[in-house]
Design a protein that fits this description.
85% of the residues lie in helices and 0% in strands. The protein contains eight helices and no strands. α2 packs parallel to α5, α3 packs antiparallel against α5 and α3 runs parallel beside α7. The two termini are 34 Å apart. The protein has 245 residues and is mainly α. The relative contact order is 0.17.
Amino acid sequence: MNFFTHLGRFLLMLKGMFSKPENFRMYWKEFMHQCVEIGMGALPIVIIISLFLGAVTTIQTAYQLVSPLVPQSTIAQIVRDSMILELSPTVLSIVLAGVIGSKIASELGNMRVTEQIDALEIMGINTKAYLVLPKILGALIVVPCLIVISAVLGIWGGRMAGSMAGILAPDTFDIGLRQNLNFYNINFALYKAYTFAFIISSIPAYYGYYVKGGSLEIGRASTSAVVVSCILILLADYLLAALLL
């Protein structure tokens, strides 16, 4: 019953977000602020993780492909498909669940505990629409862009690692990148990106919006939000792969 209680309250929160804005300029300013906060705040960690993911994937793939019958360009194909299909969308989303999710949950939780949300409601502002909706819309726009950047940087990092380690030449890597490219993989990665972006933003917003207590409960809500988001990301990853691949 506890699960259905949380589910019902979560759906009611989503339903309450859709209302006519009291002041469109105020809502637009908050939306742009969330896009900058989510995007620029997570960009450095995205760059670092993506480069090393691509580099490690190239080195480990070359280590496993020891057969002389397998052309070296196959390494580039494996790195390309691994980054696009799984590493950039899923691994990066789990990292972003910790970076973005904890920030959203702690921010809303602090506003709830200090009664700022109650003050906004007294002034006639729909706090679900003003505080939660811009975060979700901002994540839906920014997170897929971060995942696209991650895939590009991961492939480039793999190319650089292969060249510096003497595994395969950049020209050979470029040949492999162009071989057997399935554009549906890119569409599938974007499907995952938008699904994960919604999970990363909505679940922490729910936990932060309905937190009760003090600073200790805010910490617990942030931890619960990140854990639940990671579990739902892995579950959605499996369901999307089973249904769409």
